Amino acid sequence: MKVLAIGASRNIGYYAAIRLLDEGASITFLLRSPSVFDNDEKIKTYVTSGRARLVKGDALNKEDLLRAWQIAGQSENEGVVGLLLFTVGGKPSFSITKGAIITPADLCTQSLLNALTTIPASNKPKIIVITSNGLDKASHKALPLPMRLLYEYLLGGPHEDKLGAERVLAHCTGKAWIDPEPKAHILPAGWLTTPGLPSGGELKEDVVVVRPAMLTDGSCRAEAGKTYRTSDTIILGAYTVSRRDVAHFIVEGIIKNWDTWKGKIASIVY
Known about the structure:
This is NAD P-binding protein. It comes from Gloeophyllum trabeum (strain ATCC 11539 / FP-39264 / Madison 617). By secondary structure, the chain is of the alpha/beta class. Helix content is 35%, strand content 19%. The longest helix is centred in the middle third of the chain and has 18 residues, at 156-173.
């Protein structure tokens, strides 16, 4: 399988990419700084073998996305990209009054718009997008009180951005949107007519949104025989999950059971 990975220089995207590479996939990484892997011997081995390609570019630049799709389709044998792995997340700064701040504020939303509007016409990849638990009103209301307070204070800005990404996906998959529209600095007026944006449910069965609970840097418990909880409905009592276990779920749970998860929002938590 050929994969285009956006936002996979670290964390969930990186751990999922390593799993996919180990299982035989070919991955094209779009990276603002390919030097991030200079000391990563495992990635360097796959680069040497031709199974990993490092493309310098920024997902906020549409031309860079066009080039990334083209290169991803050319890796190894000619053909189509089977999976778009979208795990974009900025490195936040912190403000006492505003909590976590992502620059630009629409990083995930705009990057996703660029990724979706540049998919080659001949390509129909599976798409996995990481957002977060507690974004919409229903899932936020179901959070334990300490998590609601923490999210509201600490992650308000990043969650506005990820909610914007989910709004875009709702449009592309034909799902009704019942929450308030994202703020104008996330999705400005006229975004629905963005050239090349899939609409009318065109991606109905091509997308899985993954909403992890609050992320930790812990080990992959699944590899030790322990379990995490997943569901396509809201999970009560959702506190944390490790990035490594989310990556495990992406590869072992979603990709290998696509017909079970396609078109759904998947929650994961311990």
